[in-house]
Amino acid sequence: MDLQAHIESKLKLFVSTNIIRRAKLTVLAGLQDAFTIEFSKVRNYATECLNQNLGSTVVIKTERTVPDSPPYFQRIYFCFGAIKEDFKSRCRKIIGLDGCFLKGIVKGEILTAVGRDANN
C-alpha cells in the first residue's frame, strides 16, 4: 500500500502526491542532518572510550574523495581492553562471526566477532 492510500484509509484525508513528495524529502533531509551530526562525533566517542577503558583499541578509517573535501567515514573498529584480556585468559579459541546489512540512508554492514567461554 502506498503512502497516499494509507493516509486516505487511516486518517480519512486526501493528500496530493506533491505534498507527500515534499514531506518525504523534508524527513530524509532531517535524517541526513542527524547522521552528519552523529558521524561528526565519532572521533570524540572513540577518544572517550580509549580514556575510560584502558588497553582498548579503536581504529577509525576515513577517506577523502577530493583532496580538499572533508573526510568520508568508512569504518570503525572497537575492542575494549577488559574484554580483550578476558578473552585471552579464559575463552576457547573458537570465534563466531555474525553480521547484518544496514538499509536506509546509511548502507553497509555490521560484523561482530564472538568468543564463547567455557561456562556457556
What does this structure look like?
With 120 residues, this protein is α+β, with helices and mostly antiparallel strands. It is 45% helix and 31% strand. The chain contains 4 helices and 4 strands. Strands 1-2 form a two-stranded antiparallel ribbon. A two-stranded antiparallel ribbon has the order 3-4. A hairpin with a 5-residue loop joins strand 3 (91-102) and strand 4. The N and C termini lie far apart (45 Å).
Q: How does the SSE layout of this entry go?
A:
Blueprint: H1 3-11, H2 17-40, H3 42-52, E1 57-63, E2 72-79, H4 81-90, E3 91-102, E4 108-117
Antiparallel strand pairs: 1-2, 3-4
On the 0 to 100 scale, the average pLDDT is 82
Give the class from helix and strand content and strand pairing: alpha+beta
Strand order of the largest sheet: 1-2
Please give the number of β-strands.
4
Amino-to-carboxy terminus distance: 45 Å
Determine the number of helices (DSSP H or I, runs of at least 4 residues).
4
Features:
4 helices; alpha+beta; 31% strand; 120 residues; two-stranded antiparallel ribbon
Concise account of the structure shown:
The protein has helices spanning 3-11, 17-40, 42-52, 81-90; strands at 57-63, 72-79, 91-102, 108-117.
